[in-house]
Amino acid sequence: MKVREVMARTVVSVRRETPLKDVAALMVEHGISGVPVVDEQGAVLGVVSEADFIVKERGLEGIRHRPLARFVGESDEVRAEIAKVVAETAGSAMSSPAITIEADRPVREAAALMIERAINRLPVVEEGRLVGIVTRADLVRAYVRSDREIERVIRDEVLVKELWVDPADIQVTVERGVVRLRGTVDRRSTAELVTRYIARVEGIVAVESDLGWRLDDREIKAPAPDYISPFGRG
């Protein structure tokens, strides 16, 4: 499943010059935790989030300066915090560069990015322009796929298009998101690959595999190459 399939296409966004008070009003009105900041072409410049407002609310007295800052200068992090505290527009308060994701990327990539960066929403871009927004709540939609839809994706997308495996060799049943595989394939490595690829399909809760194989290629060792002296044979 791609990000474009679960993202919201109606996006509340602001411009760099939008007053911060207007940004806050938009977030409250729409019940959202952040808004992308875009330029005239729709390119995402940054994001203003609740965290940015918290920094501003904390004020200058809440900033922790590094030792000897008076002599060696402030760190980049502290300078960024000070800029947010005194900010009056979206452009001066936003976190930049923005963390975005392409619309055609898999949903699992969006999930991994949100966890890695500890964020709740991602602006979605296409050819550099904002086309949507995806939130953690949106990602949950991947798990409401019907069993029939999951089975179709496994057969048509995974077995046929990705792995070139004959679906007639594998019996696929799906019940409440749990996939069960039966049948026999040519090699043990193929059986393991099938299970691994199917487990990546969004909406699957678990994969139970009882696939057999005709050849255990794990036990086949490649023949050692003949040694050829740099001076030739003999």
Q: What this model shows, in words?
A:
With 234 residues, this protein is of the alpha/beta class. The chain folds into two domains: 3-142, CBS-domain (Roll); 145-219, 2-Layer Sandwich (Histidine-containing Protein, Chain: A), CATH 3.30.1340.30. The chain is built from nine helices and nine strands. It has a three-stranded mixed sheet with strand order 1-2-3. Strands 4-5-6 form a three-stranded mixed sheet. Helix 2 (50-58) crosses helix 4. It is elongated and about 70 Å long. The N and C termini lie far apart (60 Å). The mean pLDDT is 82.
Q: Report the β-strand fraction as a percent range.
A: 15-25%
Rg to the nearest angstrom?
A: 26 Å
- Domain count: the total is 2
CATH uppermost class of the largest domain: Alpha Beta
What's the total helix number?
A: 9
Name the helix and strand elements from N-terminus to C-terminus, one letter apiece: EHEEHHHHEHEEHHEEHE
Sheet with most strands: 3 strands, mixed
Q: What do we call the CATH homologous superfamily of the largest domain?
A: CBS-domain
Quick summary of this structure?
With 234 residues, the chain is an alpha/beta fold. It has nine helices and nine strands.
Characteristics:
alpha/beta, 3-stranded mixed sheet, CBS-domain, 234 residues, single chain, Histidine-containing Protein, Chain: A
